[in-house]
Specification:
Elements lengths: L1 H9 L2 H11 L19 H12 L2 E2 L3 E2 L5 E5 L3 H4 L7 E5 H8 L3 E4 L4 E4 L1 H6 L21 H21 L1
Antiparallel strand pairs: 1-2, 3-4, 5-6
Length: about 160
């Protein structure tokens, strides 16, 4: 039950629907559906700018194949709707997902990655992502202010995670 509560806390609407399907004996539907989506204008150019700036280096895990690197915003693009080159990093896709969900962040004082303590307790393998020095040259580092915002948002989220367990 506690695992389901944790999954529910971390899931979006799609995740909740998948949880419900897993809990039932209903056959999984197939096929396709037409949808209207919001597409980020300029995302490809932002990604190209991140590659021009950082090469193929994930800020947390170091050199990686280009195909698995994402251009990550240090802020909510949905809220701001603008791309800022000094507000982004390249992150490996799995690290990017954790970063966007405020489960991994970068300490703006130490320039080291930080994994949410509740995740480290449950998934010790994530320890290799924790306290890793940022793999970005000092002169190319993104905005410390934006990084500090992400870091503080992450730490607030972790308090909520601890309180919900």
């Amino acid at each position: 039950m506690r695992a389901v509560e944790m999954l529910a806390f971390h899931s979006d609407v799609e995740g909740m629907l998948q949880l419900e399907l897993l809990a039932s004996d209903v056959e999984l539907p197939g096929g396709h559906v037409d949808v209207v989506v919001r597409q980020r204008v300029g995302q490809a150019r932002f990604r190209d700018a991140m590659f021009a700036r950082f090469g193929t280096t994930c800020a947390v895990t170091g050199e990686q194949p280009r195909e698995i690197l994402d251009a990550a915003h240090l802020y909510s693009y949905a809220d701001r709707g603008e791309h800022h080159v000094d507000g982004g990093l390249l992150l490996r896709a799995d690290v990017h997902r954790l970063f966007d969900r405020l489960l991994v962040t970068i300490d703006p004082l130490t320039w080291r990655s930080v994994v949410a303590p509740p995740l480290l307790e449950r998934y010790p393998g994530l320890g290799r992502l924790d306290a890793a020095p940022v793999q970005v040259p000092v002169d190319l580092r993104p905005s410390t202010d934006l990084l500090a915002e992400h870091h503080e948002s992450s730490r607030r989220r972790w308090k909520d995670l601890v309180a919900s367990t």
